[in-house]
Design brief:
Elements lengths: L1 H21 L11 H30 L9 H25 L9 H28 L7 H28 L4 H10 L3 H13 L6 H24 L7 H18 L1
């Protein structure tokens, strides 16, 4: 029963973060400024980068120490594979969106699609660290798992908001906009559960899976979030650093 509760809350918390962000729609009295939107994106980027390093890549390398001088190999292979995975998924999504019958997709639709796609590796990351934490030899510590899950939940907050707020400001009912914002994160618990049960049968490749999730998250930050935050001459540097610092503090405080 304890294990079931840990899994339940572990996979649910990031989704709650998205839903809380989407709930911002109920406080709207005007349009969210472009500067605020870009600051939130930069902050989310910093958190994701730090989570990828401390909660995924470093544990991946440490778990491969028995390989000696090539202990970097699983982490490097996973990092590259994860980034290629998201690249291919994004390429497929863009191909679908450019077909004639899909030309009615607007900017908000594409943002919803992008956020939903990049929530898949985040769900995988949650499933991987939970599986590592629940493994007999404790390959991932509780502190590392909690740090990653908390970090993902925090960075999910602005993602829920950047989906629901534009929809409401375009005239959609606030409750319906909230549901859309929340649903962008529904893939996280789904993939977290799938990955959790899959990993339990293939623990030897856990270092690869940890770095795979890191590669996917880093690709999303580099390809989507930071460029979006820097559009039209904006600067995302300080908000990225602030998000990175927060994740670093969480890691140290919980570790």
């Amino acid at each position: 029963m304890t294990e079931i509760l840990i899994i339940f809350f572990g996979v649910l918390i990031p989704f709650v973060g998205t839903s809380l962000g989407a709930a911002v729609v109920y406080t709207l009295k005007g349009r969210i400024s472009e500067k605020t939107n870009k600051t939130m994106l930069g902050f989310a980027s910093g958190i994701m980068l730090a989570a990828s390093v401390w909660s995924l890549l470093i544990p991946s390398i440490e778990l491969s120490e028995n390989l000696g001088k090539i202990s970097f190999l699983p982490a490097a292979a996973g990092l590259f594979s994860g980034s290629v995975f998201v690249y291919l998924v994004n390429a497929l999504a863009k191909n679908v969106s450019t077909r004639p019958q899909n030309r009615m997709l607007n900017k908000t639709d594409m943002l919803f699609l992008a956020v939903t796609i990049h929530n898949i590796p985040e769900g995988m990351a949650v499933g991987v660290v939970l599986a590592g934490m629940m493994s007999p030899d404790g390959r991932v510590t509780a502190a590392e798992a909690i740090t990653l899950i908390a970090g993902i939940a925090i960075q999910n907050f602005p993602e829920g908001a950047i989906i629901s707020a534009p929809l409401a400001l375009e005239g959609m009912n606030k409750t319906k906009a909230f549901v859309y914002g929340s649903m962008s994160g529904i893939v996280e618990p789904i993939f977290a559960v799938i990955t959790f049960f899959a990993v339990r049968f293939i623990l030897p490749v856990l270092p690869f899976l940890l770095s795979f999730a890191a590669g996917a998250m880093i690709y999303v930050v580099a390809d989507d979030l930071i460029p979006e935050a820097k559009e039209e001459g904006g600067s995302a540097a300080m908000s990225v650093i602030a998000g990175f610092a927060l994740m670093m503090i969480l890691d140290v405080a919980l570790g």
